[in-house]
Amino acid sequence: MANLFSVKNKVIVVTGGTGVLGKAIAAHLAEEGAKVVILGRKKEVGDKIVSEIKAKGGEAMFLVTNVLDQSVLEQNLADILKAYGRVDTLLNAAGGNMPGATIAPTGTFFDLKVDEFQKVLELNLTGTVLPTQVFLKPMVEQKSGSIVNFSSMAAFRPMTRVAGYAAAKAGISNFTQFMATEIATKFGEGIRINAIAPGFFLTEQNRTLLTNPDGTYTDRGQSVIRQTPFGRMGRAEELCGTIQYLISDAASFVTGTVAVVDGGFNAFAM
Question: Is 4 among the domain residues?
Answer without folding.
Answer: no
